[in-house]
Amino acid sequence: MAEVVGAAGGAGAASESGRPDALGGPAEGKVSPLLLLALFSGLFLVFLDTTVVNVALPDLQDDLGADVRGLQWVVDSYLLTFSCLLLSAGALADRIGAKRLFTGALVGFTLTSVWCALSGSVATLLVARAAQGVTGAVLMPVSMVIITQLFPDQKARGRMVGVQSAVAGLALAAGPLIGGLLVEQYGWQSVFWVNLPVGVLAVAVLVVLLPHARPEQRTGMDLGGQLLFVAGVGLLTYALIEGNSAGWASGRILGCFAGAAVALIAFVLWEARQKHPMLPLGFFRHPHVSAGAIINFTVFGAMFGAVFLLMLTLQEVDGLSPVQAGVRTVVMTVTVAVTSVLGVMLGERVGVRLTAFVGAVSMAGGLAGLLLLEYQDGFSHYWWQFLLLGLGAGFAGPPVTAALLRAVPEERAGTGSGVGYTSRQVGSVFGVAVSGTLVSHHLGSGASTALAGLPLPPEAVDKIASGDFSGAAALPERIRPEVLSRVGTLFLEGTHLAYASGAGACGVAALAALLLLRRRRAEEGGGAAG
């Protein structure tokens, strides 16, 4: 795949396949554990920052004065730039080299994390989070390119994909727990400060141990495709998040929906005519690529939307501290970590079709189970839903991602990983946007009725209708419990709409697994055309 041209630390010798013997070439088959630790540490930070901020949202809301819409943007500004640039980052790694990209992006990610921590307003934080997402977008697919270079054997590479998936799953699921511990002790800024020491140490190790590899592709970047993709996904996300406050029938929102449709259609037409497209449409002729994109989009969209709402529910409605809320997610954290590795292994033994189907059904079952939650239910009422969510993420995502990567040509590993990760992250963007919008709309339309008969000023009702509960603590003691009970019940009703939508999306993922993953080892039939 790539010719090794040198590596520090005595790793410059290359095998006949063009890989460094000391760092993963077939001659010795060994990779420095310290190198893998640094590589996966960088990846851990990227995934951690997609969920660690969720548990900090109430604290951030109190400090910066954000409503539910603003909190959606705190999460989605990162996910949006993250998802929109993944395809370009994967293609860029195929062209200019993985080491330069990965280490440079990790430096950028560390610096933008500091920027987030220093933000003194919602607007500043949104810009910093967007910049952080740009650098994170590079790290995800490029890490897969590095794994492909270091592990030429498909079985060994498959195991490393499982480890990578476990790291990602652990970071995603552990985010609320880590965030809770940090926020309660040091404030919301600490969820960003924690990236600084880890990032610095990881960069130092990668500079010394990661070998250089000369990329084979020297073609130009597909800037037109990139701009159209960013415009399409960005406009659609903006319309979904802002539609409730601006009015769904307003010219601004309708214009955004129309612009998104035009941009995305133009993107497909543009890519079909390019000699070196950012997204080779021929990849999707392989059933494992199509299934991987659909399943990653739906399952992780449903999961991210659910986690976003669960963290708000546990703290704003149930009154738990950040640490208490984070501890409630340990069941999901452990399950994701275990099943991410187990899912890839089972996919190789019994087939990706069955494994992915079980994962999608488990996720749907967990989301359907969340519909049973009522106001201030204890942990005994929802631990098993968290277990099913973790099982679904581990069994549905990693196996189909591994199968997707085996289905694309090895020299397009960066682009292939970009396809898998982009579908996952775009799904996450829409999951948070749709879930938050459903809850915001339900609050806005039902707050006046739910709070009728209580001696509340109109501005207090309007504030609650926007999803800002920060003023509830200042209410008179004689009405505060009743207000919290009614608002909490109304909020839960809105989350039920979101959970039901997510369960339906996972039903689509289950069908995709059954219909598209028909051959147990379809990926062995040859790579998808690029």
Automatic annotation (TrEMBL):
Record keywords: Antibiotic resistance, Cell membrane, Membrane, Transmembrane, Transmembrane helix, Transport
UniProt-listed GO biological process terms: response to antibiotic
Q: Where in the cell is it found?
A: Cell membrane
Keyword Protein transport appears in the UniProt entry: no
Provide the Gene Ontology terms for cellular component.
Answer: plasma membrane
> Its principal location?
membrane
User: How is it placed in the membrane, per its record?
Assistant: Multi-pass membrane protein
Q: Molecular function (GO) terms listed?
A: transmembrane transporter activity
> Which residues does the UniProt record annotate as the domain Major facilitator superfamily (MFS) profile?
35-521
Q: Where is this region: Disordered?
A: 1-24
Which Gene3D superfamilies does the record cross-reference, listed alphabetically? MFS general substrate transporter like domains, Multidrug resistance protein D
Return the protein name.
Major facilitator superfamily (MFS) profile domain-containing protein
Organism encoding this protein:
Streptomyces albireticuli
